[in-house]
# Entry
Amino acid sequence: MPWTCPSCGNQTDLGYNICWTCQSPRPESDAGAAVTTAGMMITTTPTFQTHDISEYLGPVFGETIYGANVLRDFFAAITDVVGGRSGQYEALLVQGRNTAMTEMAERANALGANAVVGMRYDYSTVGNSMLMICCCGTAVTAAPKSAQNHG
# Structure
């Protein structure tokens, strides 16, 4: 279900915290959580409710590898003993996801795309303390649906 931007009146698919048109934050959302992807529309679904896909340009990927440092491992070990969530590792995951998604969007942009559909993440470990985060999707060009087709 799309939402209407209070700033410009245009519609954006639900799941995005910023308006595609004017980049204003969605009401009652955490604007700081939005990923900077150079205006690139990205969705995990194969289509957009508000846009028609005109061209499929192929798969795009973003990869990043982060090392867990000694201090982060120390605090995670304490959390493991006493229980609870590891804020240090959660922050690393958020940073890694954002980096991988931004890299994927830049590669899609280089192909001439303005959107990515079918986006997915994959996580794995490399060695003893390295985390690899991969992001992939299909680069496409998409245009807003006309008023008569939107509904």
